[in-house]
Amino acid sequence: MKRILIAxxxxxxxxxxxxxxxxxxxxxxxxxxxxxxxxxKIAEVPSKSVNFDFVIATTMKPxxxxxxxxxxMCFLTGIGIDKAANEILELMKK
Length: 94
What we know:
Elements: E1 2-8, H1 13-28, E2 35-41, H2 45-48, E3 54-57, E4 69-71, H3 74-77, H4 81-93
Parallel strand pairs: 1-2, 1-3, 3-4
């Protein structure tokens, strides 16, 4: 079971939009039921990241992240989704 942290500025709005897209990517690639996603504020990522397999954020990477980081801005802009999706799928294999 992979633990994924999705973060945005407030932990609600854009992280929810990204979460829906990430869940679709994972489910479409056979990972349904093999992950757990939690959302948080970007300010919480450094302390929370120690308990997660990787972080996806719709903002800039903060200092002190303790696990792999995926830039999730593409889930808002629509630009570069394939690259982020490939990164996420590679992290799911580890």
